[in-house]
Structure formats: C-alpha cells, structure tokens
Amino acid sequence: MNYPDYIFEIPVYSVSEKKYYEKFEKAITKQTTLNLAHFKDLFPLNFQEEHHRYLSKIRERLSDSFKWRYNEIVGYIGIYVLGNQIRAEYSYTEAKRIVIKSKKTIIWIGKLFERSIYDKENSEEIFEILKEEIELVKKEKPFKKRFIDTSILYKTGRYINWSQIMKKENIFNK
C-alpha cells in the first residue's frame, strides 16, 4: 500500500495526559494503601516514613516505564497535500480493549478530511483552515472519546509557510 508523504502527523491518545496521570496516581495510592498495615507490622516506630519512601520508589520506578506520550497512542492523523487539497487520513489500533503495554496493530482507515486550497489563500489562512478541520474531527466518532494532541502542530503551525508547502508538495507540480 502506498501511503502519501505526510507533512505532519498528529498523535491520537486513548486519554489526555492529565487523565492518564490521575489514573496512574489512583492506582499507586490504591496499591500502596493495601500495604500500609504491612508497614505498621514491619516498622512499628517509623512506618509512615518507610511507607512514604516505598511509595516514592514505586512511583519513580513506574513513572519510568509508564510514559503517557508513548504508551497511550491509539492512532495517528497524517496530514498531506494532493493537488490543491490539504488532506488528512487516520490510522488506529485494532485492539478491542486498549490497555497499557498492549501489543498494538495499527490499521489504516483512509481519508479523514480533504479541503481545497486556492492560490489566493495565504499561509495564515491555510493554517486556520487546517485547524478548523481538525477541530471538526475532534467532535466526530471515534474521536469524541480520544485525545487528539494538536499541541505541536498549534505551536509550530503559525511559523510554517503553508503556501510554499502546498506548492512544493503538490504531486502535479513535481
């Protein structure tokens, strides 16, 4: 299968970073609360201090392997140019249940949106069109329950010469 040359990729996550780490903290607290009685038996004089030290070690060890940015990805939106259109397509994991550390197979879905861009539109207008399309996608199924991380695109997009990209990446101009 030939994939287009993406000019940008946007990761899609199962949950936002905030929700992920809230769940992470709840899981650690639940796990370590169960062990509190055990610490009282082992360290009767300073069980709270030892329990706190244990909690810190667990959190440190787990936080190294449970990174939101890399573990919660469920798909990607690829942005590309075709002719005078800016397009996006979506690929996602086929897993029925998305869990941390799952072995994911990514499935290509195809076109997510396409929008014609005209010569009169400048870079700023093209970027606004792209943002509008992505914001519309966020409201559609299955994205309502997902987190589309547009942070990098939105931080850098205003500095990109979208008009030039539309001209240079247009396969009909090559």
Walk me through the structure:
- By secondary structure, the protein is α+β, with helices and mostly antiparallel strands.
- It has 2 domains: 110 residues, no CATH class; 53 residues.
- It is built from 7 helices and 5 strands, in the order E-H-H-H-H-E-E-E-H-E-H-H.
- The chain has a 5-stranded antiparallel β-sheet.
- Strand 2 and strand 3 form a beta hairpin.
- Helix 1 runs antiparallel to helix 3 and helix 2 packs across helix 3.
- The longest helix is centred in the N-terminal third of the chain and has 19 residues.
- It is elongated, with a radius of gyration of 22 Å.
- The protein starts with 7 loop residues before the first strand and ends in a 6-residue tail after the last helix.
- The model has no long low-confidence stretch (mean pLDDT 81).
Describe the protein's topology:
Blueprint: E1 8-13, H1 17-34, H2 36-42, H3 47-65, H4 68-71, E2 73-82, E3 85-93, E4 106-116, H5 123-138, E5 147-148, H6 151-156, H7 162-168
Antiparallel strand pairs: 1-2, 1-5, 2-3, 3-4
Rg of Cα set: 22 Å
The helix-strand sequence is EHHHHEEEHEHH
Q: Catalogue the unreliable spans.
A: none
Major β-sheet, in short? 5 strands, antiparallel
> Would you report the number of β strands?
5
Name the average pLDDT.
81
User: Strand content of the residues, in percent?
Assistant: 15-25%
Number of domains: 2
Oligomer: single chain
Structure class: alpha+beta
Key attributes of the depicted protein:
22% strand; elongated; 5 strands; 174 residues; 44% helix
